[in-house]
Design brief:
The structure is a homodimer. Chain A is elongated, with a radius of gyration of 28 Å. In chain A, about 40% of the residues lie in helices and about 25% in strands. Chain A has three domains: about 1-170, 3-Layer(aba) Sandwich (Molybdenum Cofactor Biosythetic Enzyme, Chain A); about 175-250, Alpha-Beta Plaits, CATH 3.30.70; about 255-420, CinA-like (Maf protein, Alpha-Beta Complex). The first copy, chain A, has 14 helices and 18 strands. Chain A has about 425 residues and is of the alpha/beta class.
Chain lengths: ~425, ~425
């Protein structure tokens, strides 16, 4: 079936907001097997909206609308689209009571205009809105469907997931299941070469999304029921795991810091960090995770040599002979902060994030990352030429987190050299 | 004049990418005084593209296209739109040489298809592309204009700025000038009340954009020449400064951390931070600014009481009697880290970012922020109910940075209590 996406709102035409709803709905429709030929944006103007709605109904079997469902006089999407699909609308007492209750609960006055929101499809159906006052609507005429959803993404997304998707799945006679595998330690093009064969399927599909310092694999299967779709995803995911192994650090939306926090708590281990060029980014990422206080002892962001000696007990001779950006200083930072904090694992990062401060011998983008546990410190040398300060810092923090994860799980420390501490 | 925006690309219909070009172009058109009634997205399909191009030419005086100018067979925007505006296209030898040179310079093979890119408007004109091989095009017929630009933003934005905007300004007989004032310390609705009168003008315009923990005022003026537009902006900006004073902390794109770094360097001052609930966010923001090593001494992220005592010399009795989240501990953290680091200013933050850890007496969202300089420590109490962990942390870091800024500039410390240190 083919589908079309229409966003209603002057703020989109003015460029005040980005049309993220269109991308969200486009992805969802693609995953459901709908073909989208057109997307439109139109303002809160009844004539122009009617024109767009008419064209869309003529050329597309399913039309998804976002926006224009509010209580103000210029929100006319429902009335206009209802007319296009020949629906007379009717006043719904129950819907009205719901809106009344919503206003009472937030102690806000209800206006006469809010009454308009209780007009519901006579031939179609109402779509529940759990996160706002404006209910959605579905209109249908001669096998042509319109789905109207509110503009704010925090209302639209739940409404799509709970109300619209099941109806669209029924039309396509299918359900969808997705998994996201998060991969660290293999660059996108190398990864693409390793899994090329797995990216060619039509159902399930697998696609790579490159992010800074990681790649996400999205697997999506379409099947007659949830169980079958899950099984199809599972089979393909197993093939990714067979190739990528422990480079897949987690599944889902949450980044490496979540994996590290959970892994440390599960293992009863604690972490301390000493950062120079990343300036607290590792500790910031760790502590952004709720519950991290269970496993995080402290972070020291030491920009000056003085502080490296004072708080981290880095040796002044090493600083003088090897310089602050050296494997030896990274090692002593990791070991020093761990001992200071009494933590199981210590991480140390020193490098040149740029844009200034580079030399021929130690260029911008050179970072040493160390992780200490037991009587061993592992050190990794990273060189990121021609990258911005932000990318260098993020990539270094990601490597540090992955090293902590690998230590906690007893995994191999790829690309690191091991240094035994003098007892 | 009215205008329309059309994006061409299957990747937009699939939701693989976000249509940021539409927002960029919409903002630019609004600023230039064009009225935009419609935006569309259509795939690389000649029939459907022709249909959309025809509708757009009929209803809009100016149509801006993005995408579909590449060398592949499915990139047909130029040919299709040329036909709509009755332009036969012609082969351009100079354009062809330019494309040849581009491929030679990047040591990439040139395909027969790249020849297609040297077909240029016969009645309109070519738009130079400084960042890619695909030149843009302008077509014109009976006072109706189409501007074709490439899809990648890093090609489209410079082409719009250098080639398209001047032509549009000529049509509107104007130039534009904008200023962005960054405001901290006044909530959006209060701010709106204070400057309501200044937001009503049509030229120059002023609009408020609420962000987390700050509001941006954008002033835009349209005039016959740059000097006149600048003067109009300046006059309106002066009125904002008269009302908002030192709540305007900077102008432009860069956040509070840039102001703090520059202010401290200018004043020859240094900073040290001690963070609990913000977990290194302040030090991370400061060190994200190039050159911050000149003014930043160190940051300590102390999650445990033990570390607060060990590294920051917070008194164990105070921790026991007042608890870690208390004005007294914030004060001692700010003072302790400053003394440890030998810095001019010390900042201390302690609070409950949530979602766990709150009590009736000390709820989630309660944060104490302290800043120490000379013999005084200033302490601010912040209570952000019903906010997410990320928002609480960002708002607390913003307040801490503003307190540092105010100390460095000798400005009033709004909402803070002063504590004199025992000599």
């Amino acid at each position: 079936m083919n589908a079309e996406i229409i966003a209603v709102g002057t703020e989109l035409l003015l460029g005040d907001i980005l049309n993220t709803n269109a991308q969200y709905l486009a992805r969802q429709l693609a995953a459901l097997g709908f073909t989208v030929h057109f997307q439109c944006v139109v303002g809160d103007n009844p004539q122009r909206l009617a024109q767009v709605a008419h064209t869309a109904r003529e050329r597309s079997e399913v039309v998804l609308y976002s926006g224009g469902l509010g209580p103000t006089a210029d929100d006319l999407t429902k009335e206009t689209v209802a007319a296009e699909y020949g629906d007379p609308l009717r006043f719904d007492e129950a819907e009205y009571k719901k809106i009344e209750r919503f206003f009472r609960d937030c102690h806000r006055p209800m206006s006469e205009n809010n009454r308009k929101q209780a007009m519901v499809p006579a031939n179609g159906r109402t779509l529940a809105n759990e996160n706002g006052t404006a209910p959605g609507a579905m209109f249908v005429q001669n096998g042509r469907y319109a789905f109207l959803m509110p503009g704010p993404p925090k209302e639209l997304i739940p409404m799509f997931e709970k109300e619209v998707r099941p109806l669209l799945q029924t039309m396509q006679q299918c359900v969808l299941h997705s998994r996201m595998l998060r991969v660290y330690g293999i660059g996108e093009s190398q990864l693409e070469g390793m899994v090329a064969e797995l990216l060619e399927g039509e159902n399930p599909t697998a696609a790579l999304y490159a992010k800074t310092a990681e790649v996400v694999v999205r697997i999506t299967a379409r099947a007659a029921d949830e169980q079958a779709a899950q099984a199809m995803c599972g089979k393909l995911a197993d093939r990714f795991y067979a190739i990528l192994g422990d480079h897949i650090y987690a599944e889902g939306e949450q980044g490496m810091e979540y994996t590290v926090v959970r892994t440390f708590i599960d293992a009863g281990m604690t972490l301390a960090t000493a950062e120079s060029c990343t300036g607290g980014l590792v500790s910031e990422r760790i502590t952004s995770v709720p519950g991290s206080s269970e496993m995080f002892e402290c972070g020291v962001c030491s920009y000056s040599n003085n502080i490296k000696q004072l708080l981290l007990e880095v040796d002044s001779g090493t600083l003088r002979q090897k310089g602050a950006v050296s494997p030896e200083v990274a090692l002593q930072m990791a070991d020093g902060v761990r001992r200071r904090a009494g933590a199981t694992v210590g991480v140390g990062i020193t490098g040149i994030a740029g844009p200034g401060g580079g030399t021929e011998e130690k260029p911008v983008g050179l970072v040493y990352i160390a992780a200490a546990m037991g009587d061993t410190v592992w050190v990794h040398r990273m060189l990121m030429a021609h990258r911005t300060r932000d990318v260098v810092r993020l990539a270094a923090s990601q490597k540090a987190l992955d090293m902590a994860r690998r230590l906690a799980l007893g995994l191999p420390m790829h690309g690191c050299t091991a240094h035994r501490l003098r007892g």
